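Record type: monomer structure entry
Structure origin: computed from sequence
Chain ID: A
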Amino acid sequence: MQDKFIDKNMTALISDLQKLIRQPSVSAKNVGLEECARLVVCMMRKAGIKAETLRIGKNIPPAVYGEVRSKQNPAKTILFYNHYDVQPAEPLELWNDKPFSGNIRGNKIYGRGSADDKGELITRIKAAEAFLKTTGDVPCNIKFLVEGEEEIGSMHIEDYLQRYERKLSCDAVIWEFGYVDEKDRPIISLGMKGLLYVELSVQESVRDAHSSLAVLIENPAWRLVEALKTLRNKDGKILIKDWYKEVEDFTNEELRVIASEPFDEKSFKKEYGIKRFVGDKKGVKIRKALVGEPTCNIAGFTSGYEGLGAKTVLPSRALVKIDFRLVPKMSPLKQLGRLKQHLKERGFEDIQVRMIHGEAASRTKISNQFVKTVREAANEAFGKSIVSVSSAGTGPMYSFSKVLKVPCISIGSTYIFSRIHSPNEFARIDLLQKTTKCMCKIIKKFSNQ
């Protein structure tokens, strides 16, 4: 019944997604957040979902809360967590269409947020609508929490969870996204890595100087390069003392799941135009690294002249942005302390360290009944699915697990090569359709779990 409703109403789903894409909502620039939150509220209400904005303080983007109470099963509640904010669209010149166009070509809808995360959000809203429009009820209580700061670290999501804990109480959470691989199999992810994001900076002199003075004045860029080379080796292993101290080995059950996960090395390398993986990883080592290996990544390096042509300048300042991916049991604050101690012991006391953001990692156990429920629904909707111990990415899943004390699972419509966070981001219409049906099946099966 719901599947037929979804098939007949795909035009409306596409139209609503285009409206969301065409409303810029860039959290990094504080652009369009209030407007987009209001738009989400309107869409939820139009679908029959009781919706409102939640607030915790001035100058903090509102969260959107939605709720549908079940008449037939008011004792069970599933919560959908999503976000309405998007990444900046730059570099603008690399887009084939305007970044917030929502243009359709063939089976794809283009625009910033089309996949991450407005496409995912619309599948959840339309799933609830499918039940309400076909039966006038939902199989269990359905709640929504849609925030506006996910793309800048979700720094206030735990405050929202704590303040509105009773309102947000539930029995399980469907996370805000989920990849679909190149063979159209949804990847059911049971966790997310944590994150420590820092800036390292050096101020050497009061102003930039002529580069001929490099024989006398220390170049802060070289200073940072020297420090960076002490953080990890060429194979990606982090060299900071005790960095891996709390890391636990995979369980036998997790190893079995990891070993069974497919990964197409050739298509991955072709998509990104690379010839080898870090440390020449092959086979199961690739999959183990993705789901459970900490990383040290240089996200950006700024110093001196960066324009066209030449300028012989000796910069006065240099700054590097680094993100460390963490795994369960690793504390962002403890790892920050180890980083600072590492730099001090190696004579880099002059380097300033500023923490931008930190999140702990989280995983749902494979044995949890909710995992079986989600997989059964995914197999029915897509034909086949893949269970992954953890996503390689980061989100505030730990906060949900800690405050709400419920399992969290990622599953969604995002094609693995959909260019999220990059120019020409797109969502596939066929995957939006399948995922909406999948959400309906999850809700129905969960109500009987």
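Annotation 1: The first strand starts at residue 50 and ends at 54.
Annotation 2: The chain has 14 helices and 21 strands.
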